[in-house]
């Protein structure tokens, strides 16, 4: 909407901007709190509160969080767990995206009997709560000897991500004209060549969305991480929670703040770099 | 029959007549064969992937449902025991409380995140300055892990280290803000953190809806002299009603699935004041090692999701059909 004439200057400056800026502060304050605390010392925070400006800027918390602080008895900081998350998220993102593209291609452009039922089931999978998958995964991982391995978590995220990636790609591919596929078929292009040479090169926009979506979700995932890994194999979210639950020792809010920021950094970076696509990913499927 | 052989088997025919060309033909045949092999392998991969995507959803749902009808503890046991675990759940205090918590949290969260999202979407739609910056700020929490959100809010809301202590430090020494440790108010701290995380998302969806509207719709209203507020309430919001409904459904299913946010914020406490059904599932399955009982809890969780998604899916079907009939 928004014609220039719709609002008077007074409403604009007395209401619109104050409300927008007020909410911007509400969303920014927690981030500001963590950033500031990551530079404050233990004494400083415990004497006052987590809300405060650093008396001096200390980098000590950051080096502690990265390589010194103890999680559940192991004093290696957060970096090995970030490495774990990366080793899980990168292959799982690539595989689930590629397989989702293949599935979307089959459902949208290589129609077969029952494809709409198949699509309905896959859509249902998007909504299926993770709690419904815990027991089957526990049994399957045990049978495959993948309990407490990074490969096990990769498998979970590849298979579990298929619903989302298939949905994204299918909804994108239905807009590719069928004639294009028919023409390729007349020219003798088979199933694979059509996919590889025609559909995939057209897919860049949706693949970016899918990759951002998958990476963010897998990096941030917690439940499977905490259930199916322990000790040195934990992903970063599970390690953070272990740090959080360390009630026995005095809470090191400064170090925790730095750890939280380190853990959040990759997805925030992805969001800042690909924000436009991130929004498109969030809105995909619900607003057309 | 030389003519026949050319038609049915060109490669041999050509090979006998022209040895230099035969190499090219053999290469072509080889290429075609390879293309066929690649195509077959790719199709098998495609079939396996599709089967995996479908089988995973159907198989895991049925599997957990089956386990919920058995006495499985740490290991699966496939002997049927009927509705035993379900009957027990209906008489379990923890389970009842978890749903009361979910009801309070879910409704408050949906209403607040939905209305804040709508307010921000409408205000951003007024051709404001720095729109991109504001949108980025509103939406960035969605890129964060719930563990991060929960942890940070647990500090801010913690009376001894957060807002309460800060305000007391400013001089108001009797200031009280201790919802986090108050068993009647703790559930609202979960609402605050969840609203913080998801309002921007609601804003993004609703703004996309508002932007998709036809400008002529407003011009007519403007000529009629409707005020801006009236234009949104009477025209714009009813026009994007399907999107509003979609946002509410997404927020509601988000609240039903909430788990790690609570674990990081309150760990379900004080007592069980903020324990949600998702945590009850985990508690049964992995803390107490009662796989059957935990599965029954998970199935009921899915069921509560279906109560909302089912009617919504039917509504969507009817709407699609009506739209296609009206062209």
SSE layout and pairing:
The complex is a heterodimer of chains A (288) and B (327).
Chain A: H1 9-37, H2 42-47, H3 60-67, E1 70-71, E2 74-75, H4 79-109, H5 115-127, H6 134-143, H7 150-173, H8 178-186, H9 191-199, H10 204-220, H11 223-228, H12 236-244, H13 253-283
Antiparallel strand pairs in A: 1-2
Helix pairs in contact in A: 1-13, 3-13, 4-7, 4-10, 5-7, 7-10, 10-13, 12-13
Chain B: H1 2-8, H2 10-17, H3 19-68, H4 84-90, H5 93-124, H6 131-139, H7 146-157, H8 163-169, H9 186-211, H10 215-223, H11 228-239, H12 241-257, H13 260-265, H14 277-287, H15 291-325
Number of helices of chain B: 15
Distance between the termini of chain A: 18 Å
CATH homologous superfamily (4th level) name of the largest domain in chain A: MetI-like
Q: What's the total count of β strands of chain B?
A: 0
Largest sheet of chain A: 2 strands, antiparallel
Overall pLDDT level of chain A:
86
Report the CATH superfamily of the largest domain in chain B. MetI-like
What is the chain-wise order of helices and strands of chain A?
HHHEEHHHHHHHHHH
Shape of chain B: extended
How many domains, in number, for the residues of chain B? 2
User: In CATH, what is the class of the largest domain in chain A?
Assistant: Mainly Alpha
CATH architecture of the largest domain in chain B: Orthogonal Bundle
Oligomeric composition of the shown chains: heterodimer
């Amino acid at each position: 909407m928004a014609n220039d004439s719709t609002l008077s200057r007074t409403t604009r400056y007395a209401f619109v901007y104050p409300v927008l800026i007020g909410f911007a502060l509400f969303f920014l304050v927690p981030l500001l709190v963590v950033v500031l605390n990551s530079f404050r010392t233990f004494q400083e925070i415990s004497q006052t509160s987590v809300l405060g400006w650093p008396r001096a800027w200390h980098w000590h918390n950051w080096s502690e969080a990265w390589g010194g602080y103890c999680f559940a008895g192991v004093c290696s900081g957060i970096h090995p767990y970030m490495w774990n998350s990366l080793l899980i998220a990168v292959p799982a993102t690539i595989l689930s995206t590629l397989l989702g593209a293949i599935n979307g291609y089959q459902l949208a452009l290589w129609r077969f009997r029952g494809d709409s039922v198949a699509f309905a089931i896959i859509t249902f999978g998007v909504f299926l709560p993770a709690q419904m998958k815990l027991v089957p995964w526990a049994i399957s991982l045990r049978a495959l000897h993948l309990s407490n391995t990074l490969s096990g978590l990769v498998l979970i995220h590849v298979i579990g991500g298929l619903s989302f990636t298939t949905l994204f790609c299918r909804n994108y591919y239905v807009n590719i004209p069928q004639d294009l596929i028919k023409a390729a078929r007349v020219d003798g292009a088979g199933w694979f060549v059509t996919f590889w040479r025609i559909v995939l090169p057209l897919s860049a926009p949706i693949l970016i969305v899918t990759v951002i979506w998958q990476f963010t979700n897998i990096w941030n995932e917690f439940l499977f991480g905490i259930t199916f890994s322990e000790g040195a194999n934990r992903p970063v979210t599970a390690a953070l929670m272990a740090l959080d639950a360390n009630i026995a020792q005095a809470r090191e809010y400064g170090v925790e703040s730095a750890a939280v920021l380190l853990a959040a950094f990759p997805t925030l970076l992805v969001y800042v770099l690909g924000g436009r696509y991130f929004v498109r990913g969030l809105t995909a499927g619900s607003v057309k | 029959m030389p003519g026949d052989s050319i038609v049915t088997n060109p490669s041999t025919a050509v090979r006998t007549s022209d040895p230099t060309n035969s190499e090219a033909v053999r290469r072509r045949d080889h290429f075609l064969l390879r293309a066929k092999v690649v195509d077959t392998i790719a199709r098998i991969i495609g079939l396996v992937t599709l089967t995996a995507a479908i089988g995973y959803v159907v198989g895991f749902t049925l599997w957990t449902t089956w386990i919920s009808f058995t006495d499985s503890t740490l290991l699966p046991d496939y002997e049927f025991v009927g509705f035993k675990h379900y009957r027990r759940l209906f008489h379990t205090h923890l389970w009842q409380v978890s749903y009361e918590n979910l009801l309070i949290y879910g409704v408050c969260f949906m209403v607040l995140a939905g209305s804040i999202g709508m307010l921000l979407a409408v205000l951003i739609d007024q051709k404001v300055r720095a729109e991109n910056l504001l949108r980025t700020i509103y939406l960035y929490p969605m890129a964060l892990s719930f563990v991060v959100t929960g942890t940070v809010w647990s500090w801010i809301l913690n009376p001894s280290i957060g807002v309460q202590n800060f305000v007391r430090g400013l001089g108001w020494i009797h200031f009280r803000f201790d919802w986090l440790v108050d068993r009647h108010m703790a559930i609202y701290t979960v609402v605050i953190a969840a609203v913080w995380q998801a309002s921007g998302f609601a804003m993004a969806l609703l703004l996309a809806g508002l932007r998709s509207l036809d400008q002529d719709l407003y011009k007519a209203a403007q000529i009629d002299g409707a005020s801006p507020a009236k234009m949104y309430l009477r025209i714009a919001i009813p026009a994007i009603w399907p999107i509003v409904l979609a946002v509410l459904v997404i927020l509601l299913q988000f609240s039903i699935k909430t788990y790690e946010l609570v674990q990081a914020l309150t760990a379900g406490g004080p007592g069980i004041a903020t324990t949600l059904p998702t945590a009850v599932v985990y508690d049964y399955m992995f803390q107490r090692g009662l796989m059957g009982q935990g599965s029954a809890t998970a199935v009921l969780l899915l069921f509560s999701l279906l109560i909302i998604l089912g009617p919504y899916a039917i509504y969507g079907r009817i709407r699609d059909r009506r739209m296609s009939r009206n062209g």
